[in-house]
Amino acid sequence: MFSLLDMINGSLGYFNLSVKIKNRIYVGLAFFGDLYLIYVTFMLLKNQSWLRGFLYFLAVVGVTYYLYLNAVYYFLGKTSRFDFLSPWLSKLTGTTRETPEEKERQRLEKLAALQKQAMGASNGLFTGEDVIQAEVEIDSREQENLRKVVDHLVAEGVLLADYNGLDDDGIITQYQETGQPVDALNVGQQPPYFELVHDPLGHRLEIYMGLNQMEKRPVGHIKRVGLTDVHTAHDQFDLYLASLYVTGGPRKIPGRRGSTILTDGDFGLVAQVAYRDRQGQTDSSTTTGAPTQPLGARERARRRH
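The chain above was modelled as a monomer; its predicted structure follows.
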């Protein structure tokens, strides 16, 4: 019987299952093992093997108790009020056993702190009709700078990199739902300082980012503003970097036996650009009677066609 259970336990390592599902399977296997121990204990007592029967009876009590605690924890997501040993073992080993509710509470607190930080780290407020998505390109030099800046911001605690508060179990679950690796950088984070600078030598709009203006580095450049080429957009409009988010970098994917594998990738940038008509063009359009069409309206017209 125990050889069969051990064989089933070993075969689980060949399947990519979440930690929670595996632990539930282990609880189920332990239940059948406990039934077997109860049967052996009954037969020993029936045959008047009192000493061995008593020892097996103590083993049944211990296994049943732990089986009950794990069933409550992994199936109901909470700890039992009859769990007297876990606090003592936690104090003895110096570890804590957090309930799923406690983990979820801590994750929500981190997300709330992150949202508050993101709201504070912005380049001001722009109205929605004056902001449009921009396409960002990053060359090898800019990628190197971006990695240095992100590493610095993470080390300073400005950017959080804890997989949005997910443990290995949560990472595996999210990967199974989305099919995408889970980035180490938490989503929705903006750097404390970023700006858009026109580089006349390179003929491009460079994105600078850093802990502050003194430590800024070029980390990317704008290729398109909406569907419009950046040179055309820059000739007709004043452009401002409204928001900037960092994506990519180190990430995790599911491994075997409920573990995760850390991989690396390039960082990316998601940028939104605010725009307004250049003053000279506005005056010229007033004279000629041919007003400049707003960039956002132009993009919507392109999509309709």
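Confidence is low (pLDDT under 50) at residues 280-292.
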